User: Which sequence fits this backbone?
C-alpha cells in the first residue's frame, strides 16, 4: 500500500490511501479498467451507506449531486426522458464525476471506495451508497407488490 497517494495540499476529497481501509482494494479489484468494465448484477440493496464509503466522500458526492444525476439517468422522473442502461461497470459514474469537476486522479479512489461498499456498477452505486433513489424505491415497491422489478442490466443480457 502506498501511503503517499493523494496530494497533501489541496486534497479536497480527503482520499489519501493511508487514511482509507480500502487502499489495498486496488490490487484485488484490478486497476480502473477492471472497475470500468465489470458486468456483475447488483447483489442486493442496502438502506444506507456501509463502512466502505466515508462520510467525507458521501458529502462530496452529495454536494456534486452525483446520486441525483445518476438516478436521473437510470430512473428518470419524467417519462419523456429515455432510461439509460447500466453497462455493468462504472462508466456513467466516472463520466458524471468528471462533468461535476472532480479531478481525473480523484475519480479512481472514489470508485474504489464505492466498490468497497458493494457496488460493482452504476446502478449498484444507487442501491448500495445512495440514501434515497427512485431506482431503489421503484425496485423495492415493485417487489413488495409481487411484481417483476425493472432490471437495469437487462439490455446486457439481451445481446
Assistant:
Amino acid at each position: 500500500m502506498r501511503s503517499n497517494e493523494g496530494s497533501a495540499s489541496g486534497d479536497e476529497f480527503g482520499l489519501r490511501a493511508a487514511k482509507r481501509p480500502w487502499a489495498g482494494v486496488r490490487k484485488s479489484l484490478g486497476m480502473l479498467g477492471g472497475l470500468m468494465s465489470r458486468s456483475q448484477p447488483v447483489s442486493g440493496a442496502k438502506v444506507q451507506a456501509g463502512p466502505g464509503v466515508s462520510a467525507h466522500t458521501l458529502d462530496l458526492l452529495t454536494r456534486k449531486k452525483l446520486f441525483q444525476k445518476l438516478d436521473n439517468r437510470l430512473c428518470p422522473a419524467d417519462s419523456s426522458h429515455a432510461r439509460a442502461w447500466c453497462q455493468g461497470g462504472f462508466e456513467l459514474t466516472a463520466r458524471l464525476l468528471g462533468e461535476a469537476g472532480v479531478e481525473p486522479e480523484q475519480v479512481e479512489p472514489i470508485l474504489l471506495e464505492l466498490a468497497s461498499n458493494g457496488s460493482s456498477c452504476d446502478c449498484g452505486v444507487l442501491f448500495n451508497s445512495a440514501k434515497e433513489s427512485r431506482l431503489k424505491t421503484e425496485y423495492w415497491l415493485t417487489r413488495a407488490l409481487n411484481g417483476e422489478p425493472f432490471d437495469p442490466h437487462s439490455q446486457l443480457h439481451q445481446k
Residues 1-50 have pLDDT under 50 and may be disordered. Residues 25-41+54-157 form one domain. The chain has nine helices and no strands.
